[in-house]
Amino acid sequence: MHLGEDLIILGILLLVAYVLGRLGRLVGLPAIPVYMVVGLLASPHTGWFPLDFESHYIELIAIFGLILLLFNLGLEFDQDEFFGNFGKLIISGGSYIVINMGVGLAFGFMVGWGTREALIIAGMTATSSSAIVTKLLIDLRRLPNTETPMILGVTVVEDIFIAIYLAIVSVVLSGETDFWPVVGKLAIAFTFLVVMFTIARWGGRFVSRLFRTKDDELFTILFFGFAVLFAGIGEILGVTDAIGAFLIGLVLGATKYRNKIEHIAIPLRDVFAAFFFLNFGLELDPAQFPSVLGPVLIAVAMTIVLNILAGQFVAWINGMGAQAGINTTVILQNRGEFALILATLSISAGLDERIQPFAGLYVLIMAVIGPVLAANSEKIGGMILRTGAPTRRRKKPKRDPMLDEEIALVEAATADLAPESGRDDRKADDTTAAVDRIVEQAMLEQSASGPAAKQEDSGDRKRD
Fold this sequence. Notes:
Structural class: mainly alpha
CATH architecture of the largest domain: Up-down Bundle
Shape: globular
Number of strands: 0
Number of helices: 20
Radius of gyration: 31 Å
Low-confidence stretches: 387-397, 411-428, 450-464
Largest sheet: none
């Protein structure tokens, strides 16, 4: 089996992705649209890339990328944050999802591609990209901002929603129409969710015993094996491989080895996820873009408007101002991996073929617009919230030249109080501090009496 040519092609694609990624970083673009564009360039549908490359070469690697994306999502899920602020998070995140999901579902039915397609479109437009949101908060140095905990709280609720939503969607996409089989599949899916959440919440100490090894190689094989194993279990139980991976990540995130797993898993995720997005781009056919351009542009406009409303509403609930709402809006409107995961599921379920180009074009546009707006949210807020002329800075009052001269004389007189003069250091410091207080007090008195002195002086001149 000779793979030399295929390896050369794959290596060239990754190098092209690197170059475009570096260029994208200059304007603040995340990696997701870059990888999709590279896949689109090499797609057999375009002929833009001089190499003949079929997507099935990397499909298995792309599946690993999907598994690790959701595995890391579960691994990074902060259970203490979620349960410690349960009420506020549910209200904030829940209201955000309800606003976007409700209108998105109506839009899905309006497009007219079918009921199941409407459910997929609603999911695509309802939730943010956790990867892009987190990356933007770090790159833009927004982590200390007052609205950042609120934004991260919304993404936490979205992660829970994704798990439940995918469990429901997997049953809907199975094509089962009889009532009791559908109920049975939903019961199995939710039982799996409840069991795994329970283990994650209270069984972390027992799971930790499985990872007692100092060998990093065996440690990596162990957690990666768990991710793949539970992805397969999830697929067999009907809740998709993505949710199986998310749930085992949730369980391992509750162990004392979470940081060590994250340290190894994040680079693995980045490499394999690149193949997932690359593979998605390979399957896109630009010739189908015109047929979905109208719905995509409507979806983009709808997403921006809904996020403005939802962002301001969530900020208002948490007692924050309009600028915090604007920052929340532009960060949370980014769409990415979850929309592509739903599109991948719809392809395997045999839904309308237009779902795939719709998802690809929608994510490409949102993943470009989102970071650009996020980087300029402070400027946008300043332009929108400014109600009048900008306030002028107060000029510092000019000091009296005589006072400057007096200060210089005092400093010259006390120059010999420096420690190197041989005198007692503590006495010198005390004397210098006392002189500083006298000078400061004189400056304050001169500043306070300045206007009055001017009035008195002008009166004396008039009397003269």
